[in-house]
Specification:
With 475 residues, the chain is an all-beta fold. The protein folds into two domains: 84 residues, Sandwich (Immunoglobulin-like), CATH 2.60.40; 367 residues, YVTN repeat-like/Quinoprotein amine dehydrogenase (Methylamine Dehydrogenase, Chain H, 7 Propeller). It is built from one helix and 38 strands. The strands form ten sheets. Strands 1-28-27-26 form a four-stranded antiparallel beta sheet, with no helix packed on it. A four-stranded antiparallel beta sheet has the order 2-3-4-5, with no helix packed on it. Strands 6-7-8-9 form a four-stranded antiparallel beta sheet, with no helix packed on it. Strand 22 and strand 23 form a beta hairpin.
């Protein structure tokens, strides 16, 4: 095989856009599962679709074996089981877990770990295998971070994340927070300690930009103490790109990279009703407010947006909507699911009513069957704190496949996740046929063809042709 430098000169690369899936008007809400303590309670964070086609997530309370939260599994049909207890990993996870390219899951816990540095432990990074074997990779010790509140992102075989506090900077009580890198074997490097001026209290998962750098937000800090938008290189050079101000709103949450190369996110407050906003921001920091929530269409956004295969964005608000859960007024309503076109027009798709869930605290994910899945922190069965639910929003969008990882070069092995893959007869990378093995109905292993160009992956099955939801980058 040609070496990578020779390959780049031999094979010209180009980028094509993701095709837009056909949108159907058939949309329905399904309450898939209700937590009842035995499987945990009060789920939080995004779900992750596993290699087996099931979904995995975290609960903040009442897990197995103790009341430290845990990891659960739910099938697309709604069969819910406890997968691993956070008591083995840390305590009280505040974000979902990540399916990594090695096939294992990785995540963080807010508390737990070594109790010498913090009375309840400063938090951990953990790993769980598909068979449920769990390992604590790192226990934070204040100076290298304290209370990780966000999930992880994988880049070049390592993982990157943030902690809400810690880092040793005395400008903030208990530190202003950190950005860290950790290897799959648990070697952690603190890349940056926030100072307050460049941000304070990052609590959202980092996002990979088109330039190969990581982007994120801090909930507070910056020039106006309303949060910041920042860029950090994989080596740890951080640039504050934008400080939020009263015109932008306050408390930026997670980001998603849009297909137009800009980032889209939400703020927890701001707008005329102080119910939160949706914004667009360029990599250079030019920000545009797209939508102000007013209560009837939702209040206090949760998690991050997801851009689905129709090109539109979907998200959730933890309060607001048309149904009351806690009293009068939209701040006491149960929460919503909404859709937003890139221009910023928002449509409320569903208002929770308590019986089908309340207070969705995580974002939505689009699964390879085309549908959107998420969780609510409360609602459903009343188990003392109303344990929470798992739901599905059927979009009418077509099934697709997704590569893991979404980049590679000649002879690399790529996992392709999908549904109903049994009997697949052809796999192509930007039109070039690839050698492949069918692992299961939800997974194919394929070898990247020689001199393949950046483009979409297609899998031909007895049920039709499935196209990847993201471009596979040849490098």
């Amino acid at each position: 095989m040609l070496s990578l430098p020779h390959r780049k000169s031999f094979c010209a690369l180009f980028l094509i856009g993701v095709t837009t899936a056909i949108y159907s008007s058939a949309q329905t809400f399904t309450n898939l599962a209700v937590f009842d303590k035995t499987s945990g309670s009060n789920p939080i964070g995004n779900l992750a679709q596993g290699l087996d086609g099931n979904f995995y997530g975290t609960t903040t309370n009442v897990g197995i074996p103790a009341s430290d939260g845990g990891v659960f599994q739910v099938t697309p049909e709604g069969v819910l089981t406890a997968f691993a207890g956070a008591g083995n990993l840390g305590s009280t996870p505040q974000a979902g877990i990540l399916l990594a390219t090695d096939g294992n899951f990785y995540g963080t816990t807010y508390w737990g770990g070594d109790r010498n540095a913090c009375q309840s432990g400063c938090g951990t990074v953990f790993k769980i295998t598909p068979s449920g074997v769990s390992t604590t990779l790192h226990s934070f010790e204040r100076n290298d971070g304290f209370n990780p509140n966000a999930g992880l992102i994988e880049l070049n075989g390592n993982f990157y994340g943030t902690t809400l506090y810690g880092g040793g900077n005395t400008n903030c009580f208990q530190g202003c927070g950190t950005v860290f890198e950790i290897t799959p074997t648990g070697t952690l490097t603190m890349l940056h300690a926030f100072t307050g001026a460049d941000g304070k209290s990052p609590q959202a998962t980092l996002v990979l930009g088109n330039d190969g750098n990581l982007y994120g937000t801090t909930y507070q800090g910056g020039s106006n103490n309303r949060g910041t938008f920042f860029k950090i290189t994989p080596a740890g050079v951080l640039t504050k790109v934008h400080s939020f101000d009263p015109a932008d709103a306050t408390g930026p949450l997670g980001l998603v990279l849009g297909t137009d190369g800009n980032f889209y996110g939400m703020t927890a407050s701001g707008g005329p009703q102080n119910a939160g906003t949706v914004f667009k921001i360029t990599p250079e920091g030019v920000i545009t407010r797209l939508h102000n929530f007013v209560g009837s269409d939702g209040a206090i956004p949760a998690g991050a947006l997801v851009q689905a295969t129709d090109g539109n964005f979907y998200g959730a608000t933890r309060l607001g909507g048309s149904n009351s859960c806690f009293g009068s007024g939209f701040f006491n309503a149960c929460g919503t699911i909404f859709e937003m076109i890139p221009a910023g027009v928002v449509t409320t798709l569903h208002s929770f009513d308590g019986t089908d869930g309340e207070r969705p605290l995580g974002g939505l994910v689009q699964a390879t069957d085309g549908n959107l899945y998420g969780t609510t922190y409360g609602g459903g069965v009343d188990c003392g704190t109303r344990c929470g639910t798992v739901f599905k929003w059927s979009t009418g969008l077509a099934p697709f496949v997704t590569p893991l990882p979404a980049s590679g070069h000649d002879s690399n092995t790529v996992r392709i996740l999908g549904t109903d893959l049994t009997g697949a007869t052809l796999v192509t990378f930007n039109g070039k046929e690839a050698k492949f093995t069918i692992v299961s109905s939800t997974e194919i292993k394929a070898t990247v063809p020689m001199c393949v160009k950046t483009g979409l992956i297609e899998v031909t099955t007895p049920g039709g042709k499935l196209t990847s939801n993201v471009v596979f980058t040849a490098n």
